[in-house]
Design goal:
Helices cover about 25% and strands about 25% of the residues. The protein is an alpha/beta fold and about 575 residues long. The structure holds one RNA strand of 75 nucleotides.
Length: about 575
RNA sequence: UGGGGUGUAGCCAAGCGGUAAGGCAACGGGUUUUGGUCCCGUCAUCCGAGGGUUCGAAUCCUUCCACCCCAGCCA
């Protein structure tokens, strides 16, 4: 089973305020009942779980109302963007299970038309070329509580503006020497409307248009018009763009665009123990704090995929967190819950011992091997069965043995009888130590009448242990992941101390794990439940005969909780 | 101190004048050849605070408080 071949589990998605607006528009016959959205990433980084929220919202709305959702790259700033990012973004959106059909666009596709729109604004006296430097513009913008000052170039004649703007395009001027600005109101209480910059000169090559353009439009100018050009009806973005909506509307108003898209804003996702800002993620990658964008500790889509997350679990998560305008910090435990819920249903069960301890069954014949039949998933017969070899020397989990059994302990301890899953009952008869005094091996006896792991006499054996036959086991590397950040909310920290909050124990590598032999046939990306241990995904770093597994998440562990409570 | 937003349980989040959904977490209990899953139960006399309207307010009005966003030629 490959995780991206699985059937989608689509439950009825709950409503939210944006869906309510769309539904009301459809009922009222707005846009002739048409619904069109778009997911507009800037290709300057990899997608993360926060983007997944937006993707699910936008594509989900289109699907629910029989509309369409475009994938549009907001590639208006070539100095930050790269084709590597556009490829990863396309892959991630597809992997999440969404299809943009023929709706793949780039803001850069519209550069010619955007230039024409800008020229119209100039002709209408609604935009002007400003010769001030960036510093001067900043100084004259005023502050939150005091008005700005008009630029000395604000009232240039239309003809001169047209000429200058044309020459900006022709590449006659240096970077930063001039900009095109909207003529709105330098004392507007909304800072966004204090004559915002529409175009700036950047004589740098663009990943799609090459050397063609020395000027590039700003987000506020390009975005609303790109939406209009594509006939988007509902333009959904995050809260920090709320102030920009006034400019979004201003541009469309001045250009007389009708019918026009409307912008709606929702609160971006925040998740505990991680970071969801591109700036911070890119730092983690660049400074080598993680192995790359797809490091399984990263909240990126590619990281989650490599970790063992399924598209379904991520979609379910996005549905459960809801969509609102309130600041939020969602507990990572919810994401993990969604993964377990999905994987419990579909991951084949398998035996893997993370910290092997030899167990020798003294009364079991030296040279005998037998096979036991295991259900791949006891709750789903359709997943089939398999045979697993058993012999005199096994590996069990070191943590399943205690010399001093605490209260309620029903695993292995001197004199205690336990069940080896699907095999036999064994009783610990002796403990062998190495020179340093460490427990090196357990000596046990087994009861032949308990074949299959069951006895007719009604004997109470509470503990059931996973195991693997030493002679048949495959040695594997297992990577255990913890939270990227120790602090629940590292975003509270400033840029400097942010790195200090990284969890030093976010990755533990166990080189000597022992897994059942069938696992050497697994393919990268396949996910298994190691019984009693958790869910593990085969990593691409695996080589033939040397599997590497990533622990996606643990199983719920009631015993660990009991022990934790005792500590308190 | 200007403008734009948001406040419902530890965390998300419904609720749209008729007496506080649901999920996660937590905590009890049952089933169990995974201390998993599953099942059952507990968990807001109260909706940021005060005042008002109303037979009735989380929902309407009002005052206040707290938090977030905006002064890029980033998006």
């Amino acid at each position: 089973m490959t995780k991206d071949q699985r059937p989608a589990a689509t439950a009825a998605a709950p409503s939210n305020f944006i869906k309510d607006i769309v539904r009301a528009d459809v009922r009222a016959g707005a846009y002739n009942g048409r619904v069109q959205t778009r997911f507009p990433p800037e290709p300057n980084g990899y997608l993360h779980i926060g983007h997944a929220k937006s993707i699910c919202l936008n594509f989900g709305l289109a699907a629910e109302f029989g509309g369409r959702c475009n994938l549009r790259f907001d590639d208006t700033n070539p100095v930050k963007e790269d084709v590597e990012y556009v490829e990863s973004i396309k892959q991630d959106v597809r992997w999440l299970g969404f299809d943009w059909g023929d709706g793949l666009f780039y803001a850069s596709d519209y550069f010619e038309r955007l230039y024409a729109y800008a020229s119209r604004l100039v002709e209408a006296g609604k935009a002007y070329v400003d010769d001030q430097s960036a510093d001067e513009i900043r100084e004259n913008r005023g502050t939150l509580t005091s008005p700005g000052k008009d630029s000395p170039w604000r009232n240039r004649p239309v003809e001169e503006n047209l000429d200058l703007f044309g020459r900006m395009r022709a590449g006659e001027f240096e970077d930063g020497s001039r900009v095109l600005r909207a003529k709105i109101d330098m004392s507007h209480p909304n800072m966004v409307l204090r004559d915002p910059t529409l175009y700036r000169i950047k004589r740098v090559p663009h990943h799609r248009t090459g050397q063609k353009w020395p000027i590039y439009p700003m987000y506020d100018f390009a975005h609303c018009l790109s939406d209009a050009i594509e006939a988007v009806t509902h333009s959904i973005c995050t809260l920090e763009f709320e102030n920009n909506r006034a400019l979004y509307d201003w541009v469309l108003d001045e250009l007389g665009i009708e019918p026009r898209p409307r912008q709606y804003e929702f609160a971006r996702l925040n998740l505990t123990h991680t970071a969801l800002s591109k700036r911070k993620l890119i730092r983690l990658v660049r400074e080598g704090r993680v192995a790359g964008w797809d490091d399984p500790r990263m909240p990126t889509i590619s990281g989650l995929r490599r970790r063992g997350y399924t598209p379904e679990s991520i979609r379910t998560f996005c549905e459960r967190i809801g969509v609102s305008k309130a600041e939020n910090l969602v507990d990572m435990a919810l994401l993990e819950h969604c993964l377990r819920e999905d994987l419990n249903r579909r991951a084949p069960r398998v035996m893997g011992v993370l910290d092997p301890l030899r167990l020798v069954i003294e009364n079991y014949p030296e040279d005998q091997t037998e096979e036991f039949e295991f259900a791949n998933n006891p709750e789903d017969e359709a997943m089939g069965r398999r045979m697993v070899p058993f012999s005199r020397v096994l590996y069990v989990e070191r943590d399943d043995f205690r010399e001093q059994a605490p209260g309620k302990w029903f695993r292995l301890a001197p004199g205690r009888e336990v069940r080896l899953r699907y095999a036999y009952y064994v009783t610990c008869t002796d403990v062998v130590r190495d020179a340093s005094g460490e427990v090196a091996e357990l000596r046990c006896s087994f009861d032949p009448k308990t074949r299959g792991g069951w006895s007719k006499d009604g004997r109470k054996v509470k503990g059931t242990l996973h195991w693997v036959s030493a002679a048949h086991a495959v040695r594997a590397e297992v990577r255990l992941y913890g939270n990227l950040f120790s602090a629940a909310d590292p975003s509270g920290a400033d840029e400097a101390e942010f790195m200090e909050l990284l969890n030093p124990d976010s990755l533990r590598v166990l080189p000597g794990c022992m897994v059942e032999p069938g696992l050497c046939l697994a393919k990268p990306g396949e996910i298994f439940q190691f019984e009693r241990n958790g869910y593990f995904c085969l990593d691409p770093d695996s080589t033939p005969g040397r599997p590497v597994f990533n622990r996606a998440t643990t199983l719920r562990d009631t015993w660990a909780r009991i022990e934790r409570q005792k500590d308190k």
